[in-house]
Amino acid sequence: MGKRATTESKNILFPGYKSYSINDIIAAGGTTALANRLSKKPENISENLKKLPKDAFLTRKEATDALEQLKE
After folding, report:
1. Residues with Cβ < 8 Å from 36, sequence gap 6 or more?
2. 43 assigned to some structural domain
3. Which domain holds residue 58?
């Protein structure tokens, strides 16, 4: 797979977290395979999402607007 392209998050809510490109995820074999490679447990995602602050998620309007922009 070679050197992994990661980006340190500039988001104050998630300091120190790394993000992975779509190419990294595909090269790893998908989201579950990437999680396994990083020693993360995909089955814990629901519990981990509950721990995030409410403002970490898009509102329905924000999500709709983002999808509309992607279509353009």
Report:
1. 42
2. yes
3. 6-71
pTM check: above 0.70: no
Within-domain flag for 31? yes
For the stretch 25-60, pLDDT in tens is: 899 999 888 888 888 887 888 888 889 898 888 899
Tell me the C-alpha distance between 70 and 72, whole Å.
5
DSSP secondary structure of the chain? --S--EEE---TTSTT-EEE-HHHHHHHTSHHHHHHHTT--GGGHHHHHHHS-GGGS--HHHHHHHHHHHH-
